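Morning!

This is the sequence you dropped in the shared folder:
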Amino acid sequence: MDRKAILVTYPDRFIIREAEELAEAAGYKIIHSITQKYLKHGKYGMGSGKAEDLKELVEELLPDVIIFDEKPRTRQIYNLATMTKTEVIDREKLILEIFSKRASSAESKLQVQLAELRYELPRAKEKVRLSKISEQPGFSGLGAYEVDLYHLSIKKRANAINFKLKDVIKRRDLYRRQRIKNDIPNVSLTGYTGAGKSTFFNLITGERREVDKGSFTTLTTATRAISVSKGKVLFSDTVGFISRLPTYMIESFKSTLEELTYSDLVLLLLDSSEKFEDLQLKYNSCLDIISELQINPSKVHLIFNKVDLTSADEINDIIRNLSPELESYSIISAKTGLGIKDVLKRINDEVFEYAEAQIDLTYQEMNKHYKDLFKLREKTKVTVITHQDGSVTLNIVGEPWVLKKFEADLREGKNEKKD
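The structure's back. Tokens below.
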């Protein structure tokens, strides 16, 4: 049975809707919402007048929790919990509750535990100090701890989980090296949570991964082999994105998200049936996270899903407004299968169609970029011609995005030298 919650959020339709969806995914039923333009200031993270209104609503509606759709300071949460005598959950804690609920594999459970500890660490000392003043919902039981001991306990637990996750990363790295050795390319699927990734993955692979309208159905990467006209490809479904996702959560799921970084092609799925303003916000959030993960934009292919709920003409209008310079994209329906052949052809062309490049490097540049060259050789065929003055000419045959990345790294190195 869902727990009752009062939502405190911003007066913005997209933000309200997303907060409601997150609350539902975590098992809460929103019985009332309060909105305010600013949610980071003051004694309660909101105006005193609004806080009084909230107190009256709590007394009238008797919610189990208050969901505060921001990142308030620990003292603000404490003050609000004290005033209302009700537990207060902020946005990050809400997302962590969903993660905990959805985690099924040993790896994802470890990642969630790590994210929870990273959430707790900067708040630990203040929470213990406040709990010694008086017990409040959400702070119960902390009064028995000494401040430094509690802080140290969290750090030790986080280090222990990090140690376990390093083993996971090592196994993934060995798997990737074997994949490179066997010359099997990898394509990863990502997108904003709720865009239909799992439905699309099931259609492409014939699997039956759990499909849910809620947020973060997928927390564990699943990889299956699929066939395109020129060979086999490993196809991976990864965790979805969401707006205002803090860096420490991305870091906690690094071993899962790294699959995107090492992929030969990343398919970014968008729900084209949404209002344009919502789609634009979600698209920009995805691009921000892709940039934070340092994924080369040239290997990202956009897929506009749910054409069955709109039309190709409407989607083309969306694309012109969303990114006028966008030339390569696919329009599909993961539900009906429309456009899937186009996606498979795109995977085939991007992964197996090689490009050629000839790059001249000085002796100094060769020494500076030997690590980049080593990585390049793992992905491409490189012929090195050495000249009498120590300079070299590299004749490279490989995937276009690999060549572009290497050339970009060289340009970046030259720019640093100029600076």
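Headline: The chain has a mean pLDDT of 85.

More detail when I'm at my desk.
O.
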